[in-house]
Amino acid sequence: MKDLYVIKGGKKLRCGYTTGSCSAAAAKACVMMLRENKLISKVSIDTPAGVKLELEVKSPELGRGYASCCIIKDAGDDPDATNGMEICARVSRRMDHKIVIDGGEGIGRITRKGLFGNVGEAAINPVPRKMIEKGIREISSDGYDVLIYAPKGAKIAKKTFNPNLGIKGGISILGTSGIVEPMSEKALLETIYLEINLLYDEGCREILLFPGNYGEDMARKLGLPGKGVQVSNYIGESIAYAYNKGFKKITLVGHIGKLSKVSLGAFNTHSRVCDMRMEALVYYLALVQAPLEILKQVHACTSTEEALEVIIPTQYKSILGDMKKGCIERIRKYLKDDDFDIDIYIYSMKYGVL
Fold first, then answer.
1. pTM of the predicted structure, to 2 decimals
2. SS (H, E, C) the chain
3. Does residue 56 carry a pLDDT above 90?
4. What gap in Å lies between CA 106 and CA 152, rounded to an integer?
5. What are 118-136's pLDDT values in tens digits?
6. CATH code matching the domain that covers 5-180, chosen among 3.30.420.40, 3.40.630.30, 2.60.40.180, 3.30.2110.10
7. What pLDDT, on the 0 to 100 scale, is given for residue 294?
8. I want to staple 22 with a disulfide (CB 3.0 to 4.6 A). Which of 49, 71, 241, 345 is the partner?
């Protein structure tokens, strides 16, 4: 894995491997120890991405009728909550030829319909399950009970999306390629889409969207009805997905620093993608013929909070309502639906809802 990199934001970032790869490697290593009746220190697996991994086996143990070991998760340069944790397997023989996979300590359980498994099952995704079976079948046709566990899983899970998804008690065993691509937009979007799907499957037809925790907190303070999803900077992608999924109303709650960009038609609000917060405020001020001096003051500000201190005391604070209307118009144009029911709440950390 030291030789596998991607380029993101002009930086060379090292790739890692998923909890699914760790589970498959640990299970395969356990079967090898059972068959050879000796401890091993290395194991190799093939990933769906076509990358072959050779991984170090930690804490190998051979007992009466079972073997266990751990693989250390390496997320590369991705800020993954599971990086560095132990993903373990305990494998015992069966009298038939089946491979039965379950989750133990630190592996979450599915509590909501619409996920990748049935309610009550261990949160081990289909691809990792196939990887585990494939790795074992490469070396044995016998039957095995495979228990995947993660000693720190319950603690680490609190830092993941699992509580939002209805996965309780631990982490999920994930990965569709077996390889972690650092800073993957695809992975985050798939999580957002999954949360939207879950709400739709529960019967919700109106949805709240907010870029982050503050937006979610503001929605609760306002007493807005319904359930919602955090969408990070992917406002356009999330709105379009919810719209095409069939939701009849979307309410977007966000800080003026984010939604000022939407008011000009920017739907990925990451500062590296677009940073036109002051330009948006100047645009709406210019439309109401605010004096040039105010435009210059706002343009010189470094944050929207600072700019509001210039705008709020003046008669031109009405532009904040214009920005809200601008967001609605731009979103409807983005969706190509002039009648879609979209509501906007723009807030400031100092002034609250604007």
1. 0.77
2. CCCCEEEECCEEEECEECHHHHHHHHHHHHHHHHHHCCCCCEEEEECCCCCEEEEECEEEEEECCEEEEEEECCCCCCCCCCCCCEEEEEEEECCCCCEEEEECCCECEECCCCCCCCCCCECECHHHHHHHHHHHHCCCCCCEEEEEECCCHHHHHCCCCHHHHCEECCECECCCCCEECCCCHHHHHHHHHHHHHHHHHCCCCEEEEECCHHHHHHHHHCCCCCCEEECCCEHHHHHHHHHHHCCCEEEEEEEHHHHHHHCCCCCECCCCCCCCHHHHHHHHHHHCCCCHHHHHHHHCCCCHHHHHHHHCCCHHHHHHHHHHHHHHHHHHHHHCCCCCEEEEEEEECCCEEC
3. yes
4. 6
5. 899 999 999 999 999 999 9
6. 3.30.2110.10
7. 96
8. 71
296's tokens: 């210059």
